Amino acid sequence: MLSAEGLRHAYGRVVALDGVSLTLAPGQTLAIFGPNGAGKTTLLKVLAGLIRPQQGWARVAGGRRAIGWIGHQSHLYGHLSVRENLLFWAALYGVASVQRGGRATAILERLGLSDRAGQPVRSLSRGLAQRAAIAKALVHDPPVLLLDEPFTGLDLAAAAQLRTLLGELRGAGRVVVLATHNVDEGVELATDVAFQRQGRFVQLAPRGARGAAEIAEAYRRAVTDA
Amino acid sequence: MRELLEQAWTVARKDLVLEFRTRTALLSAVVFTALVLTVFNFGRDPTAVATIDLAPSILWVTFTFAAMLALNRAFQLELENGALEGLLVSPLSRHSLYLGKLLANLGFVGVVEAVGLPLFVLFFDVPVGPVLFPLIAVIALATVGFVSVGTLFSAMVVRTRFAELMLPVLLLPFLLLPLTYAVQATARLLGGRPLSEVSGWLKLLAAYDLVFVAVALLLFPHTVDE
Known about the structure:
The complex is a heterodimer.
Chain A: E1 2-11, E2 14-24, E3 29-33, H1 40-47, E4 55-60, E5 67-70, H2 82-92, H3 97-110, H4 126-138, E6 144-148, H5 156-171, E7 175-180, E8 192-197, E9 200-206, H6 212-225
Helix pairs in contact in A: 2-3
Chain B: H1 2-22, H2 24-43, H3 51-76, H4 83-89, H5 94-124, H6 132-157, H7 163-190, H8 196-224
């Protein structure tokens, strides 16, 4: 469903991706941990087709239409209401016009945003705006989710809600790629774990039975020893 | 083709709704138009140069600089919350994005011109009644020309520093031809010359439109991709 081979990309002398390869099947959730500047966002942008890598290739079954993206920014228009934003993005992602309203209503309800549907995005708190961004990423029911630091700006309750939602989405046979610098976030969701440092995967392996503490220890060793 | 146009309309409608909600740029452009015409009206010596000789240039200088305000904002509104990145990740084709922005800009500039033309008639007392439809044709063709080029340059400079300064510097050299054609055609129309004298300028404007819309469509993807 999602595969990449030999990805290499540099910004001038700074190498952001250096020989990264991965293959993910439906139901797999890959958590990519790495310090700031490790190349996680570049990798997600390459997978999303936003950046053409200088070497290697990335492929997502179903193309751009199959991707739900949550990045550092919400991609929402402040002067449109939450619902208007969702309808706009649903139209761009090719959701049939008769289905858009229903999809928007369902996702707003699922994320606890029904009572905010008519509110302009610019009037939302950061946490609520992040939830609206998640709603935007899910409105076309994508089989592949690319999440770049999705917990940023969420309070504890909203973060727990997002974890539950991502768990459900993974259960529905999606591929999820989650990039974060915080090992405590998303470990329990992952079926596979990668540690990225200076553009390279210094480790890519199934999570197995490893818990958050073990992963955190392995991560610390991987990014300091490599 | 149908999907291309549907997506373009989705983008254009969103831009026009946003502009209608905020009205900042539209009001600024309309007030700017009124002020420029007022300044020209009081800043000329009617005994030195006949109004009919000066009026076409004043009309087109006013429309050109008012259009700059519209073109500057075309992609700047996509910087809010990183919406441009969202558009580029989505299945929206680059060509649809360009056409959508072009349509929205044409609508915006059209409103400014619809307000500016009666003010121009009021201030300069020029006989537009008998030549209204040919004059509208000249305005429409010239507007398509400079908005098509301006939309391309607007995308090119949006991620640069001093974008608002860069746009006129890059754009104005490309506007010399359509402005020359438009001023010549307008002067002949207002001077009561036969329509056969104007048709050549109209053909040149149409040719400019065809060439530059096609070139802008070809180049646009390279200006927005990372």
